[in-house]
Amino acid sequence: MKHQLLYGKQQISMKWTTYFHLLAKRPMAIKYSSVYQELPTVWQTYLEKCTIPEKQATFKFLADILSKSNFEELTQILTNAISVKEHPSIEDLHQSFYARHLDDRTVLNQTQIESLPALPEATRGIQRYDRLLIQVGDNDV
Questions:
Q1: Higher pLDDT, 34 or 118
Q2: Which of 20, 33, 86, 114 could bond 63 through an S-S bridge, CB–CB 3.0 to 4.6 Å?
């Protein structure tokens, strides 16, 4: 395992992504590692409420997203998501992350539809079923 060399006192460099890929395979092993104690409190609390499949998805999410972002931003996203929903799903966190990083280039161009094809008028109501019953006859019903 490689860690970035830091200069100065009391500085620590931690490459979380490698650990999260491993924890995605065995999520219950986090309790026995030092990684759990080093996580921010909000992540510890969130993981305590997760089921095993949710923990696996959470660690996969963290491993994937940490290659694009930093842990402070993910903690802020989780904190914001918890303020809206007590236990947000991984999909909620994904959506929050990508909504935050959406820029003008990723927005789909909206094309104007010049004309719509003519469609037959749709009728609604129970009268259609009444007519069907009259055609079949009341004896068969």
A1: 118
A2: 20
> What's the whole-model pTM score?
0.60
- Distance (Å, rounded) from C-alpha 100 to C-alpha 119? 40
Dihedral angle computed from the Cα positions of residues 85, 87, 89 and 95, in that order, rounded to the nearest 10 degrees: 40
Q: What is the pLDDT of residue 107?
A: 46
What residues contact 39, with CB distance under 8 A and at least 6 apart?
Answer: 47
Residue 106 has a pLDDT of 46
CA distance 108 to 15: 35
pLDDT score recorded for residue 9: 66
CA separation for the pair 69, 8 (Å, rounded): 24
CB proximity list for 8: less than 8 A, separation 6 or greater:
none
Phi-psi label, residue 133: left if phi above 0, alpha if psi -120 to 50, beta otherwise: alpha
